Amino acid sequence: MADIRPFRALRYDIGKVGELGKVVTQPYDKISPEMQARYYDLSAYNLVRIVKGRQHPTDTAQGNVYTRAARYLGEWIDQGALVPDPAPAIYPYYQEYAAPGQGGVAKQRRGFIALARLEDYSARVVHRHEETLSGPKADRLELLKATRAHCEQLFMLYSDPSGEIEKAIEGATSGGTPQAVTDEYGCKHSLWRLDDAATVDSVCKAMHDKKLVIADGHHRYETALAYRDFCRARGKSDERAEFVMMTLIRKESEGLTILPTHRVVHSLAGFDWNGFVAGAQRFFVSETVELSAAEGDWTRFFSERLSRSGREASSIGVYAGPQRLVLMRLRNDIDLGRALPDLPEGLRRLDVVILHRLLLEQTLGIDRQAVREEKNLHYVRDSGDAVRQVENGKAQVAFLLNATPIESVWDNALSGNPLPQKSTDFYPKLLSGLTLYWLDGPEEM
Questions:
Q1: Per-residue pLDDT at 300
Q2: For 57-109, what is each residue's pLDDT tens digit?
Q3: Of 6-10, 188-192, 336-340, 417-421, minimum mean pLDDT range
Q4: Which of 12, 79, 152, 197 is packed most tightly, with the most Cβ within 10 A?
Q5: CB-based contacts of 106: which residues, under 8 Å, 6+ apart?
Q6: Would you call 405 helix, strand, or coil by DSSP?
Q7: CB 401, CB 111: distance < 8 Å
Q8: For residue 16, with 0-12 CB atoms within 10 Å meaning exposed, 13-18 middle and 19 or more buried, which class applies?
Q9: What is the pLDDT of residues 190-217, one digit of tens each?
């Protein structure tokens, strides 16, 4: 069962730090060097000083990246920049946004922030949907050991077809004034504090029978597991290390958006376009797409063609230049059980798996180790950016994908079949710094 609990979040005091937008950040793994520099300049209290290690010229704290982070956290608490809330609560968290490449349609994604007991995957309460790498987990573990604070939320999915939990939270927050901030991507984030004991208790009880699937934050979840085990191994009772902070979002929500992550191939010796297309005929039917300048934004036009085709069969867009634009659809007579015998049925039908196994590996000869090391492969969110990399000579060919459906994510996760890395891109990201879970904070949890 999912053990969900309210907590006394550590939160920024706006009277001390000024605007909330100057201290919160995107998740650490989405912060580019340019973003990091801008965050540093926004405020001396910007969370980047804790979640991202590089020292800035304005930093005065000494030590390594982890001890500096811990020192900043302690100083900000002592100075009253970060303050524990007066009583345990859950935190309704809404995001209003328009996803890129989807025609500017406004959406609202609703969730709530709470603590959840850490569970090993073998307990079948929390399920992963993607594989992880060891490097990021080692880094995050050292940061957690130094700070004893979870500064960023995990993004978790739960199933509630009738939406009863969302309705209970909405009823309790209606009329209240949220804390709000608009991020650099135009997404408005609104946060309420809900400490009504009866409502909080009913929400936590309603979550007891839920399965949880990690949407974003696999490395952070496994880091929290490792820290829990580290604390247990020391032989000291540390109940707070048994919990982690997460935002819980209903998988049936109309506001849930998954974007595709496209692939571009580069530095491949002897790449031959005609040979590649001919080789792909073993698995795919290829349709050359001819677009004129009169058709306007051809990347959007092609994406729409790709989406329509993908409703009928696995489809992948391939671009190697203006006269080399092809829509590839999986042949009807392909036996995926024979072509991909080592994979379960739930994974064989995914476009991203078909791309990696049939086109990258079997047609282009890019093996899985090269993929893991990104020797010949880059991941790109924007299809236009993927195309530009081909046109400016940074890549030889771009592969454009449809998004992985939420049901495929959910079903494979519950079946214990993690997807390849970069199979999903849940949009928008959760802001870091709206709430912090401080393991050495006030006693009530």
A1: 63
A2: 556 656 788 989 999 999 999 999 999 999 999 999 999 999 887 777 899 99
A3: 417-421
A4: 152
A5: 96, 97, 98
A6: coil
A7: no
A8: middle
A9: 999 999 999 999 999 999 999 999 999 9
Q: Which residues pair with 12 in a beta bridge?
A: 82
Indicate the helix (H) or strand (E) that contains 265.
strand 262-265
By C-alpha distance, which of 263, 278, 387, 249 is closest to 325? 387
What is the SS3 assignment for 427? strand
Bridge partners for 287 per DSSP: 327
DSSP 123: G
In a 3-state reduction of DSSP, which class is residue 262? strand
Sequence-distant (6+) residues with CB within 8 A of 324 are: 273, 318
Q: Of how many residues is the chain composed?
A: 445
Question: φ and ψ at 396, to 5 degrees?
Answer: -90, -35
Two tokens, residue 237: 């009772």
Burial (CB < 10 A; 0-12, 13-18, 19+), residue 337, is exposed
Confidence of residue 293 (pLDDT cuts 50, 70, 90): very low
pLDDT value of residue 276:
94
Orientation of helix 383-391 relative to helix 298-310, angle to 10°: 120
Tell me if residue 406 falls in helix, strand or coil. helix
Phi, psi for residue 41 in degrees, rounded to 5: -75, -20
Count other Cβ atoms within 10 Å, centred on residue 22. Answer: 16
Q: Which among 344, 322, 320, 332 is positioned nearest to 395, based on CA atoms?
A: 320
Burial class (CB in 10 A: 0-12, 13-18, 19+), 305: middle
Tokens of 93: 């968290």
pLDDT category at 296 given cuts 50, 70, 90 is very low
CA distance 76 to 418: 39
pLDDT in tens, 410-431: 999 999 998 887 889 999 999 9
